[in-house]
UniProtKB/TrEMBL annotation:
<keyword id="KW-0560">Oxidoreductase</keyword>
<dbReference type="GO" id="GO:0016702">
    <property type="term" value="F:oxidoreductase activity, acting on single donors with incorporation of molecular oxygen, incorporation of two atoms of oxygen"/>
</dbReference>
<dbReference type="GO" id="GO:0008199">
    <property type="term" value="F:ferric iron binding"/>
</dbReference>
<keyword id="KW-0223">Dioxygenase</keyword>
<dbReference type="Pfam" id="PF00775">
    <property type="entry name" value="Dioxygenase_C"/>
</dbReference>
<dbReference type="GO" id="GO:0044550">
    <property type="term" value="P:secondary metabolite biosynthetic process"/>
</dbReference>
<protein>
    <submittedName>
        <fullName>GPI anchored dioxygenase</fullName>
    </submittedName>
</protein>
<dbReference type="InterPro" id="IPR002347">
    <property type="entry name" value="SDR_fam"/>
</dbReference>
<dbReference type="InterPro" id="IPR036291">
    <property type="entry name" value="NAD(P)-bd_dom_sf"/>
</dbReference>
<feature type="domain" description="Intradiol ring-cleavage dioxygenases">
    <location>
        <begin position="131"/>
        <end position="230"/>
    </location>
</feature>
<feature type="signal peptide">
    <location>
        <begin position="1"/>
        <end position="20"/>
    </location>
</feature>
<keyword id="KW-0732">Signal</keyword>
<dbReference type="Pfam" id="PF13561">
    <property type="entry name" value="adh_short_C2"/>
</dbReference>
<dbReference type="InterPro" id="IPR020904">
    <property type="entry name" value="Sc_DH/Rdtase_CS"/>
</dbReference>
<dbReference type="InterPro" id="IPR015889">
    <property type="entry name" value="Intradiol_dOase_core"/>
</dbReference>
<keyword id="KW-0521">NADP</keyword>
<dbReference type="InterPro" id="IPR000627">
    <property type="entry name" value="Intradiol_dOase_C"/>
</dbReference>
Length: 428
């Protein structure tokens, strides 16, 4: 029997300079000073939560629920895996799992909280998605059952009637509900009407909601991830969609690299020829985890002897319900009764149409040098520079079909005068 890793850390989702999707960056107005103040207050708030949650029976009920869900979802014998630490720093427990391990030990350690003053929504959020538990829509791939519990960091109480909005790409790296050159076949307008791997669920009295989905695949420049938005104070319309309320939480959740490797070895994930970006190389992971004790990764267990049997993943998310990030939640499209409608104000479908075939696009960045010689700003400089280079590569790939080349030039101690040709496979 293998060891199941149970994290006991505070997770902080702070994607300030990271690039959320190829070629698109959702800016954050959350400054370094306000970030530090938030972290200090959050640490003090969370230090009181574990004991109160235990006294109120929240942890015990969470353990019983997750154990019951695990038994429901698993197909054969217990197959538990170690969860590797984010960017290879040890944080696992030495808990030995046996068939007789009490559920209280397996599923109810101190809560792992994600505190998101402002995360990355990415360019592919779709408004108007349906409230439903099963969002798989028949998509092929490894089944993924997600269990999330939301805790108010100010009161240490579960957040009831919060609406958990999730979306991720399919096994070959394509999102439903949007039409964009950055998302699969940019000419496929029928994708606007598709809803696979998108949905919303309301939390119960213990702040719990869950989904049946498909383990996400990958695309250029990003590690495997799931997008999250929390809605508070929203109301349900007659068509089973949301209206009103506000958004206190935007973030992204990740998976252990070893688990990703197992999934990517199976069909249809292994038909994707795009290079895999690992967690250690992902700009969002780097910014969320650098100097922040952050670990925004699912705990998980396999549901059978084979990865194809599915994965059960669980996580506890701490949210400041008084925060509001509505202005950061830009959407690419809206799902209506007549199908998907593109948001013309969104940047997700932006194209460079004025550049003639065979021409050249040059990207200049002059602000990065300000970070160049100061630590830890040097790390921000490096992450930002990497994001810009990745954007260049993606543009090169998108425009390479028109024989347009893309350059990026950024001053600073790490000189860049890159020349990427979209049709050159080794570069894209």
């Amino acid at each position: 029997m293998q060891i199941l890793q149970l994290k006991q850390a505070i997770v902080l989702s702070l994607a300030g300079l990271a690039i959320a999707h190829p070629g698109v960056h959702e800016p954050s107005s959350f400054t370094e000073v306000s970030k530090r103040a938030f972290l200090n207050n959050a640490h003090r708030s969370l230090s009181q939560c574990a004991g109160q949650l235990k006294r109120n029976g929240v942890l015990e009920r969470a353990a019983s629920r997750r154990a019951a869900l695990f038994e429901t979802y698993k197909k054969r014998s217990l197959g538990l895996r170690d969860t590797e630490q984010v960017v290879n720093t040890s944080h696992h427990s030495s808990l030995q799992v046996t068939p007789n391990t009490p559920e209280s030990e397996l599923f109810s350690k101190d809560p792992v909280c994600i505190l998101a003053p402002e995360g990355e929504v990415g360019p592919f959020w779709v408004k108007g998605e349906l409230i439903r538990h099963d969002v798989s829509d028949g998509e092929p791939g490894v089944p993924l059952f997600m269990d999330g519990q939301f805790i108010d960091i100010n009161t240490c109480q579960p957040i009831q009637d919060l609406y958990w909005d999730v979306w991720n790409c399919n096994a070959t790296g394509v999102y439903s509900g949007v039409q964009s050159s950055m998302n699969g076949n940019g000419n496929d307008s029928s994708n606007l009407d598709k809803t696979f791997l998108r949905g919303i669920q309301k939390t119960d009295s213990d702040g719990v909601a869950g989904f049946k989905t498909v383990f996400p695949g990958h695309y250029s420049g990003r590690a495997t991830h799931v997008h999250v938005i929390a809605h508070v104070g929203a109301q349900v319309l007659a068509n089973n969609t949301l209206t009103g309320g506000h958004i206190p939480h935007i973030g992204q959740l990740f998976f252990d690299q070893d688990l990703i490797s197992q999934v990517e070895a199976t069909y249809p994930y292994n038909t994707n020829t795009v290079s895999i970006t690992e967690n250690a190389d992902d700009h969002v992971v780097q910014v969320e985890t650098e100097d922040s004790n952050s670990d925004p990764f699912f705990e998980y267990a396999l549901l059978g002897d084979s990865i194809a049997d599915g994965v059960f993943g669980w996580i506890t998310l701490g949210v400041n319900v008084t925060a509001s990030h509505d202005t950061s939640a830009t959407w690419a499209a809206t799902l209506t009764s007549s199908g998907g409608v593109t948001n013309d104000d969104s940047s997700s479908g932006a194209e460079i149409s004025i550049c003639p075939d065979g021409g050249r696009v040059i990207l200049f960045s002059t602000s990065l040098a300000a970070f160049s010689m100061v630590t830890p700003n040097y790390l921000l400089y490096t992450a930002s520079k990497g994001a810009i280079e990745q954007m260049t590569r993606v543009l090169a790939k998108d425009l390479g079909q028109r024989k347009i080349t893309v350059n990026t030039i950024a001053p600073g101690p790490i000189g860049t005068d890159a020349y990427f040709v979209g049709k050159t496979e080794q570069l894209v």
